[in-house]
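Office hours follow-up: a student asked to see two folded examples consecutively, so here they are.
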Amino acid sequence: MNRRSGWSRTWMMLTTLVLIAAPACDRDNSGGGGAAATQTAARPKVGYTIHVLNDFTGVVKRGAERAGVDLGADVDVQGPPDFDPAAAIGIFEGMTQRRTSGLVVMPMPGDVWVTPIRRAADAGCPSSPPT
C-alpha cells in the first residue's frame, strides 16, 4: 500500500466515525443536550485503541492524528507498549468512560473484545474497527 492510499483510508475511516458519532456517549439519556451534546457540537473527540504501540502501529497512530487535524476532531490514540489484550481493553474502557464522541479499536485477538465493545455500544458509544 502506498502512502497516499494509507492517508485516504485513514481519512475515510475517521470521516465515517465522526459522522456516526455525532450524538455519541450521551450518558444522560436525554437524547439531546447537556454537556455531551455541547462537547460533540464543538469538536468531536475520537478515542482510538491500538492493540500494541510499535513501529507499524505508530504509522497508524500518526495517520489517525493527522486525519483528526484535517477534519477538526481531537483524536486520542493509545495502546499498551507490549501486546497485552487486557491492558488494551482497559484503555478502551477508559475511553468509553470519558465520553468520547466515538471509538475506533484494533480488536486483537478479536474474541476477547466482544464484551467490551458490546458494553461501549450499550453505553451509547459508537465503536468501529478501522477499515
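And the second, which I mentioned at the end of office hours:
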Amino acid sequence: MTRRTDRTLLSPFSIFVVVFSPLVGCQSPPTSETASPSMSGRPASGLAATSAVDIVGVNEADLVEATAMHRQAYRQHLIALHGYYLNHGNTEKARQAERELRDLRKVKQYRFLTEAEVPQRSLRPSQSIAAADALYEDGLHYLKSGGHGIPLYYDENKMKIALEKFQTIIRDYPMSDKIDDAAFYCGEIHKEYFNDNNTAVQFYLKAIEWDPNTPHSARFQAAVVLDYRLHDRDAALELYQRVLKEETFEKTNVSFSRRRIGQLLDPTRRGSVAPTLPEPLVGTSAAPSRASTAQTTPPAEEGRP
C-alpha cells in the first residue's frame, strides 16, 4: 500500500534513458560524426544510448507518439522473453524478466502531450464483447483492491494495472460497449492517483463523446477538475450546466452544480469558495447499471474534486 503523499519522481530525462536504453543498447556505438552533442554540455559519449534517435525535422507530437509506442514495445518484448525462458526451462532468467517487468510498472511515465496519449477517434459502443467484458471486470477488481474509495491509502502498482486494463479495452476493442466505462475510470485514476488533471479531463470528455448516455458522472467530474484544479471557470460552467440537463441521476451533483453555477455567473462571487463537495460513497466502486442510472448512486469518489 502506498501513502498518498508527495513522492520523489524520476525526471523526464531519466525516464527516457530507462525506457530507451534496453531498446538501443544492442546497437553499435555512434561514431564521432554521428554522435549528438549533450544538451547540458557533457561529452557526447555520455549520451551514446540515445544518440541513435534522430530528432532533425521531427515535431513534438511525433516524438511523444514514438515514445508511447516504444514503451509498449519494451513491455511486450519483456513479456515475450519471460515466456521464452519459461518454455525453455530457464527459471532463473524467467524470474529476472519477471522482476524487470515488475520494476517497469513503478516507473513514472509522463504524459508529455495529452492529445497523443488519449485516443482521438470518434467511437461508439455498440457490441458486447466477451474479451472486453473480462478486461473490464479485471480492471474493476484491481481498482477496488488497489484502494479506490479508501481515503489516504492506495496501491500504486494495482492502479497502474487497472489503468492498463481499461486502456487495452479502448485500444483493442473500440466497438465494445465498455469503452465509455473504461474511459471514465481512466479519468478517475489519472485524477485521483496520478495527479494528471488534463489527461483526466480528456478521458471524462471521451466517455461522454463515445456514449452521451454513459451512466457515470463524467460531466460533473470534468467540471470539478476544470473548476478547482485547472481554474478554467468558463469550461467548468458549461459542464455544470450540462449536468443539470444531461446528468440528473445523482442528486447531490445536481444540487452542487446549481449552486456553483450561481456563483460563477455572479461576477462578485465568481472567485468565492464553492459549496462543500458531495461526500464520496466509500465501498461502492462498481459501475452503476445502465438500466437504472436514475436511481443508482455513482461509483465511489464520484463526488470528489
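Two things to take away from it. Residues 11-18+55-117 form one domain. Residues 2-50, 279-305 have pLDDT under 50 and may be disordered.
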